[in-house]
């Protein structure tokens, strides 16, 4: 079997940035590793179901795939605008925050330049060890394509950039197949499948919940939308200059160097810069919606602050939520035609894929260059992108550090490849390939 130097799992922004960093190192005279990226979607997609018409980026376009590492890169957002003949018009917008539609198009433009190195429409099932004489020398990546056929590929090293999986609270787990209950990551497609929905609950206090509430309230004058959250108020994100310094690449060094207890305190202190904190402008828009209702005397939408979902039941009539008013410890029952869960993401999918390697991975700790710490008999490097918040800080799941992180991983990969290449080992597992 052919042996790749690196296989990347997922081809979203993290691994696109890594592909760019490796390409630019090659152009500068570094060794060109044999890379392949595997993506389960049939083509490039980035938050496709949250590309709302009025949604804009929350971070500057300068925090793109390359600028902070190499402003002269041909993969910058500014060069994308130049390539699309829109640079002067964008300048006239006088903004650092492009629409989400445009930034998605930029990411797709960058991804398209690596189509020869990406296998789309394949889902990675697991990663298996390959070795001999008690040493794990290679990794076998087993995938399944859209036709149900499985395939195995060998690699010396691995980069996992698969993004987060939707978090569905326990009470809603039994209704995961009910089309009336869906996560915010499915929003546009899912809401189109329930055109009859008039009474809708949005669960959550973050940017996604706020954007979805504003989208729904503007769709139809007959919609009744309840925004449900445990918080007392919608707290805006702190994007002031000093607070934003925690997203600087240099701050990653500081966070990583702190003792565990101090690092946990830092994450808690700045938690609201990234979680449960929409943009201030969006908060003001929501307040305006409720204020205009008071002026008109209508009560079409409700802001159910300090409420939590105590129980969920589904029937032909709808999805009934038992809501607990945390201020008064009272229960009320409300039936909805649809429920949107803007409840965030889980970022532990890599543990499932790497389960066959569990004995070599210890506590899934990473070094400063995002490489998993492994046992001495384990040679491959496994890099994690977007799963290291607890060790590298709140910026780890964001676009802010992509350009710098990709270069750090690229450098660590080239150092790992500088060692002697192994001959194809004997198989450590037996499995059908189709």
UniProtKB/TrEMBL annotation:
Protein name from the UniProt record: L-ornithine N(5)-monooxygenase PvdA
Pathway: Siderophore biosynthesis
Protein origin, superkingdom: Bacteria
Pfam family, one: Lys_Orn_oxgnase
Lineage, opening ranks: Bacteria, Pseudomonadati, Pseudomonadota, Betaproteobacteria, Burkholderiales
Sequence similarity: Belongs to the lysine N(6)-hydroxylase/L-ornithine N(5)-oxygenase family.
Alphabetized Gene3D superfamilies for the sequence: FAD/NAD(P)-binding domain (3.50.50.60)
Cofactors: FAD
Organism: Ideonella azotifigens
Keywords assigned by UniProt, alphabetized: FAD, Flavoprotein, NADP, Oxidoreductase
């Amino acid at each position: 079997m052919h042996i790749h130097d690196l296989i990347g799992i997922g081809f979203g922004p993290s691994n696109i940035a890594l592909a760019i960093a490796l390409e630019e190192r090659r152009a500068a005279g570094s060794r060109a590793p044999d890379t392949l990226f595997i993506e389960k979607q049939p083509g490039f997609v980035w938050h496709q179901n949250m590309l709302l018409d009025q949604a804009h980026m929350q971070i500057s376009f300068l925090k793109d795939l390359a600028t902070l590492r190499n402003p002269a890169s041909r993969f910058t957002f500014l060069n994308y605008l130049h390539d699309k003949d829109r640079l002067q018009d964008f300048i006239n917008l006088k903004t650092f925050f492009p629409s989400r539609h445009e930034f998605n198009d930029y990411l797709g433009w960058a991804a398209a330049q690596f189509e020869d190195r990406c296998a789309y429409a394949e889902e990675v099932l697991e990663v298996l060890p390959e070795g001999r004489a008690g040493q794990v020398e290679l990794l076998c990546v087993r995938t399944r394509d859209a036709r149900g056929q499985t395939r195995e590929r060998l690699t010396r090293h691995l980069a996992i950039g698969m993004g987060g999986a939707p978090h569905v609270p326990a009470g809603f787990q039994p209704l995961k197949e009910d089309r009336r209950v869906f996560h915010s990551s499915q929003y546009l497609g899912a809401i189109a499948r329930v055109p009859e929905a008039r009474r809708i609950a949005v669960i959550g206090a973050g940017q996604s919940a706020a954007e979805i509430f504003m989208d729904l309230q503007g769709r139809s004058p007959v919609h009744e939308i309840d925004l449900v959250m445990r918080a007392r108020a919608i707290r805006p994100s702190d994007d002031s200059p000093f607070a934003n310094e925690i997203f600087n690449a240099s701050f990653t060094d500081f966070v990583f160097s702190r003792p565990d207890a101090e690092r946990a305190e830092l994450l808690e202190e700045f938690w609201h810069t990234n979680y449960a904190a929409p943009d201030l402008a969006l908060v003001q828009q929501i307040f305006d919606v409720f204020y205009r209702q008071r002026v008109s005397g209508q009560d079409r939408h409700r802001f159910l602050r300090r409420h939590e979902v105590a129980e969920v039941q589904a029937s032909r009539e709808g999805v009934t939520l038992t809501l607990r008013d945390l201020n008064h410890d009272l229960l009320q029952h409300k039936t909805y035609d649809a429920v949107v869960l803007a409840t965030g993401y889980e970022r532990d999918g890599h543990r499932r894929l790497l389960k066959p390697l569990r004995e070599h991975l210890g506590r899934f700790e990473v070094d400063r260059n995002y490489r998993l710490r492994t046992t001495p008999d384990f040679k491959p490097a496994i890099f994690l992108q977007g799963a290291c918040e607890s060790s590298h800080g709140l910026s780890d799941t964001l676009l802010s550090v992509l350009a710098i992180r990709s270069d750090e991983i690229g450098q660590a990969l080239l150092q790992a490849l500088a060692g002697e290449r192994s001959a194809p080992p004997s198989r450590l597992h037996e499995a059908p390939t189709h």
